[in-house]
Amino acid sequence: MPLELTTPIQFMKGVGPKLGDLLRKRGIDTVSDLFDWYPRTYEDRRAARTISSLQAEQIVSLAAMVVAVKQIPMGSSHRKMYEVTLGDATGRINCKYFRVPYRGYFDRFARNQKVRISGKVILYRGKLEFHHPDIQPIYEDDPEELKDILIPVYTETEGLSTAKVRKLLEQASAEIISKSEYPEIFPAWLREKYKLATRAQALKEVHFPHVDNAEYLLKFTSEAQHRIIFEEFFWIELYMASIREGVRREKAIAISNDGAWVKKIREKLPFELTGAQERTLSEVLVDIAKPHPMHRLVQGDVGSGKTMVALLAAVQAAQNGIQTAIMAPTEILAEQHFKNAKKFLTETLGIEVELITGRLKTKEYKAAVERVKSGEAMICVGTHALIEESVEFKNLGLVIVDEQHRFGVEQRNKLKKNNSPHFLVMTATPIPRTLAMTVYGDLDVSIIDELPPGRSPIVTRKVFPTAREKVFGFMREQISKGRQAYVIYPLVEESEKIDLKNAVEEFEVLQAKFPEFKLGLLHGRMKGEEKEAVMADFRDGKTQILISTTVVEVGVDVPNATIMVIEHAERFGLSQLHQLRGRVGRGEHKSYCVLMLGYAMSEEALKRAEVIVSTTDGFKISEADLELRGPGEFLGRRQSGLPGFKMANLVRDIKILKEARDAAHELLARDPYLTKNEHALIKEQFEKAKTHIVG
Ligand code: ADP
Ligand code: MG
């Protein structure tokens, strides 16, 4: 039977049940998937290199000898670092691994064994080293070793080597790419306009590269890579564009009036809106005055005053007799919004506000639901409980969702309640502008990049474990003055049990250290109610120190808390550190954030700490985060709704991203429902791609 793109991978010659399983585990189910498994990098073996000739930032491949393999414990944690020392006639170099690529990886190396190493040379504390390079044993009889060529390198797992992958690809290519026509999805007009190679050309080149293209391939700027990256972006951009088009065709209630109510509320506020709030508010008011639903995201750091803007939009709706739903991710936050709304809106204009959470007793719940249904309550604040079908509105026209990253598109849809209300989504997780266009490509974005005046900036310091006692002394001093403190403990990914144990242990140690104070403990294993109770105690000042894992992250407002100590700060991502730090500095008192660092730390972790110390600007931090970690890690796939890209990189390939977006919009403009013949393959492929994007 001849091979086809749809042939299941186990039907390929040389693929037994075991290899079939390994491939399927990597998402390679068919021959087509095999072609779409792109090389991670290329080895350029033309230049013979020596250790002493290496320079920082070079991507190199060289032969050397194993001198030693060591395990090094990382601080007090349960983790270990691996260090492989290599040598040649000219010198030595260390290779560091902060995690083990796969079990048995290091057992493959004996002392004095000849190996080939490929990776990027990094300068760390004045010394050159490799981080997570690829190391392969060299066997003298390997013909590849003797050739003067460019070799694609695939991400390896146990039992699935680069050599094996290449063999399969050779076989598949001989039967498919070389012989028959590989189906071309893009029509001629699109390929010409955006200068795209055909898919067949592109695949051939990335898997069987020409040595002349080495320089481009290594930088991911070859024509072949351009085509593949473009296509990866294209599906997501087409998806976003099609959602936008769909929304544009929906009808919504136009909310428009003379703004008298908004004006009245603003006159009563104890402060002026900032310029950024002002701008965002007018963007929102323009949007909701249209007969099509607004889908707008308001991004802004914690405390930048997003909620106030949202409430004013609700006031505008209320003047027209239109109801607003405000949804928050936790009960505490819902209560916070409820109190704010009552304080600013009910007292001034008598706008009725209702709170619906899972905590209400049946009788209260029924009464609240009734007031929402009858239209007596103009604004309804709540948690997930709002999604429930028993909550009906009389005239829902505006939905405000706080801390959007905890709500998926699906939940947004449920909140529609058989209606097409305007959507205002608020998030305090700033993401770089370039990314916002894609991650939130289905939303318009407003940015509040200005804090209300008069906030004293948070003082942030990074501290090594030797200064621990000093930090505790400072905490004691502040708490004695009446302030409160957070101590944050990292989540240990590998095991929830260890995580729990660490937080609990820390709690006991600190309780012994601060016998004069009351401590609270918060962790992810607690039930929702328990968590809320612990948070409430802290908010009400019943406890002075709150030990917590990252569950405290989301928007809680305790203005009296002025110290945050983050243990093992090196283990947190930048955005996470920023979010955590945002829990302090919310009141009139000067606030402090202490980053406790472990001893064993990567260069990247140190850079992260330095970024946090140097700025409190969420956008600057998110840009730095993106640069340090790359977009995959940065976004977290699920929560962003983005598929994992196989080759595309949102930082490196931003220009191609924009082209792909233009192309997607142009395609829909030419053929809104993709009914033309020349777009049939796009339509078919798009249906498949969609399941990856939304699923
Ligand atoms: P966010 O939701 O963006 O974290 P909030 O809307 O909760 O921020 O605002 C934080 C605090 O700042 C609230 O107490 C709010 O009343 C106050 N606030 C909002 N806008 C201003 C402003 N322009 N000037 C002074 N204080 C403001
Ligand atoms: Mg908020």
Low-confidence stretches: 637-641
| Oligomeric state of shown chains | single chain
General shape: globular
**Average predicted local confidence, pLDDT:** 85
Strand count, sense and barrel status of the largest sheet are: 7 strands, parallel
Distance between termini?
Answer: 33 Å
Instruction: Find the structural class using helix and strand composition.
Output: alpha/beta
Total number of β-strand segments? Answer: 21
β-strand amount: 15-25%
The molecules bound to the chains, other than polymers, are: adenosine-5'-diphosphate, magnesium ion
Provide a descriptive summary of the structure in words:
With 695 residues, the chain is of the alpha/beta class. It is built from 25 helices and 21 strands. The strands form 4 sheets. Strands 11-12-10-13-14-9-15 form a 7-stranded parallel β-sheet, sandwiched between helices. Helix 14 links the parallel strand 13 and strand 14. Helix 8 crosses helix 24 and helix 10 runs parallel beside helix 11. Bound molecules: adenosine-5'-diphosphate and magnesium ion. Magnesium ion (MG) binds next to helix 11.
Q: Which features would summarize this protein structure in a list?
A:
single chain, 695 residues, alpha/beta, 25 helices, 40% helix
Question: What are the SSEs and their pairings?
Answer:
Blueprint: H1 17-25, H2 31-35, E1 41-44, E2 59-73, E3 80-88, E4 91-97, E5 114-124, E6 127-131, E7 134-137, H3 143-146, E8 150-153, H4 162-175, H5 188-193, H6 199-207, H7 214-219, H8 223-249, H9 260-268, H10 275-288, E9 295-300, H11 306-319, E10 323-327, H12 331-349, E11 353-356, H13 362-374, E12 379-382, E13 396-402, H14 409-414, E14 422-427, H15 433-439, E15 444-448, E16 459-463, H16 468-480, E17 484-488, H17 496-513, E18 519-522, H18 528-539, E19 545-548, E20 561-566, H19 574-581, E21 592-596, H20 603-614, H21 618-629, H22 631-635, H23 637-640, H24 654-670, H25 680-694
Parallel strand pairs: 4-6, 9-14, 9-15, 10-12, 10-13, 11-12, 13-14, 16-21, 17-19, 17-20, 18-19, 20-21
Antiparallel strand pairs: 1-8, 2-3, 2-5, 3-4, 5-6, 5-7
The protein binds adenosine-5'-diphosphate and magnesium ion.
Residues 306-307, 428, 555 line the site of magnesium ion.
